[in-house]
Amino acid sequence: MRTFLRVEFLFEQLNHYIDDPNEWNNRNAVAALIEVLDFLSRLDIKTELIKELERHSTIISSLENTPGVDVQRLTVIIAEIGNCLKTLRNGNFQPGQALRQNEFITSIKQRNSIPGGTCNFDLPGYYFWLKSQNVDKSLQLKAWQMDINIINRAVKLVLELVRNSSNPVIETATRGFYQKSIESDMTCQLIRVKLPAESLYYPEISGGKHRFTIRFMEQPSMNQRPNQTVNDVEFELHCCNL
Questions:
Q1: Please, where in the chain does CATH 1.10.3900.10 lie?
Q2: What distance lies between CA 182 and its chain's CA centroid?
Q3: Of 63, 90, 106, 208, which residue is the least packed, with the fewest Cβ within 10 Å?
């Protein structure tokens, strides 16, 4: 789940900047694209996604004859899982391979980790591309993104299914502290905490095999360390598992 959440975060960054014609946002989009590529290079996320999607497909398919289930929605989800699996199972498909073979992206990647390493005199070709009025940079970025889009689709699907699997409950953290035991017959893939947008607190969550803990922190000044609040905090808890 942590890996999938990080991938989701990276793609959200990329998609935020990809349609903006501003030079600095184009830089941010390319940097996010390279960060996704680095992440995919270090982990076999393709195999993890296949295992998770196969598991979800088995569970969801078993619900078809359950009374009250939206069969039409179920069919759509199963088909979407099948489409993702078809691409991911292709032995010739390696997400990000086309980008790794792109000399322009590689030249930026080599300088990207150096502070100020992508400035105009270090990468004049990159600077020319950023300033060019004759290139639709949004279309170019989307073309570069093509062979990793399946990872984005599959991760979004997995997380959507997991997030929607919970029955939320209202809980109270006494003096900002809440702890819950995880029963032996219950698996918790993802813990979600929801607070009002105007809340003065934010949660810090830690967990193990048998229990998880939530501490609600407050930070009146960004120049000081945050502290656990002494107030009781009501919140919405989701223990997600599919």
A1: 2-161
A2: 25
A3: 208
Q: Are 198 and 185 in contact (CB under 8 A)?
A: no
Give the whole-angstrom CA distance, residue 213 versus residue 177: 8
List Cβ neighbours of 99 (8 Å cut-off, separation of 6 or more).
Answer: 33, 37, 105, 144, 147, 148
Name the fold adopted by 167-240.
YacF-like (2.60.440)
d(CA 206, CA 223): 25
Neighbours of 18 (CB within 10 A): 23
How would you class 198 by CB atoms within 10 Å of its CB: exposed for 0-12, middle for 13-18, buried for 19 or more? Answer: exposed
CA 133 vs. chain centroid, Å, equals: 33
CATH for 2-161 is 1.10.3900.10
Tens digits of pLDDT across the chain (242 residues):
889 999 999 999 999 998 887 889 999 999 999 999 988 888 788 899 999 999 999 988 887 777 777 788 888 899 999 999 999 998 888 888 888 899 999 999 998 888 888 888 989 999 999 998 877 888 999 999 988 999 999 999 999 999 988 889 999 999 999 998 887 666 788 899 999 999 999 999 998 778 899 999 998 888 889 999 999 999 999 988 87
Domain with CATH 2.60.440.10 in the chain: 167-240
CA angle 51, 52, 53 (to 5 degrees): 95
